[in-house]
């Protein structure tokens, strides 16, 4: 036997002994080889580029998904807060007869457990005119205590005060409406309502001048440019209500459990009352938001899926390129499981690190989204987030921990699944075939 033959026999014997003894799963040498495959040398630069693009794809996909979902959550939360902060969660109306016993009904409802406040309201469309402009507006006649209980309004008064609101004939209006009318605190505007006095020639519009006693900014452009609050007693006179109101709006401590409050209020007030709630009044609006949010999640999840497919293509090329290395490892005693784990670690490392980087990028972006929006607006010279189109005056982003965790878990699972087939193909490589032409 020659020396070379003796060496081959020794190598074969040592390989068989190593193969029989095997190695522990995810041992140090598996991590070492996987790390070397990730740090490709110059002649293997193309594979390194593919791995880099896979990493960027996972990172940007996860970050984009987190950012968009946070913005959608922020939109819903802010819109819900603005709408529910100004309107009642439960709307109580009187059937048939005029709603003149609203004080007793309000007191009865206020005693229902979980009810925060019950406020009688008169509501009507008007035309608001100043010396320079005439616009449409929505008047809501409320009591001073009820108006102050609306934190959205009471905490956002920019000029004037709500104190003594019941004892005056002045009005409170939104800041955008005041700006468009070019009026300020103490100025006079004229309200014109089509629901005026009846005459032989039909209903005559009612017109009356009011002083602006306070100006508020709710942060929702639609409300800030049309909402007007008037003392309840004055609204009854202006709209010829004769001691009655339109509805009693009820604010509860848990709007999501509104069905229970509907039942309790109905039991407390009796059959002469009809009830609806915020879901029925804003059903279309919130349904559209929910559908849009789900569709965006599905579409943006495809970015992560495409990035995971890039991991598959990159690993397949790596397996093909490392066929000789795999064969040598097998002859030295590496088991099929060890080879499979090496490529599993290589591919999963790209996905896991990319997912974690995307998580950090998405969270940091959401925390600084308003500053980023302002910078982009300044750099581009355009309005990135126009309040007149998007209702809200600033771009909201609210990160949901459970939802973000689900996005990260989805990306991790896809990344690991993407490595299974290339890793299995590597483990099935025949050392004899791989070394035949070497």
TrEMBL record:
Membrane topology: Multi-pass membrane protein
UniProt key word Protease: no
Protein's cellular compartments: Cell membrane
Residue stretches making up the ABC3 transporter permease C-terminal domain: 298-431
Main location: membrane
Cellular compartments per GO CC: plasma membrane protein complex
Segments passing through the bilayer: 46-72, 295-319, 339-363, 375-393, 405-424
UniProt keyword terms in alphabetical order: Cell membrane, Lipoprotein, Membrane, Transmembrane, Transmembrane helix, Transport
Any single GO BP term: lipoprotein localization to outer membrane
NCBIfam families: lolCE (TIGR02212)
Listed name of the protein: Lipoprotein-releasing system permease protein
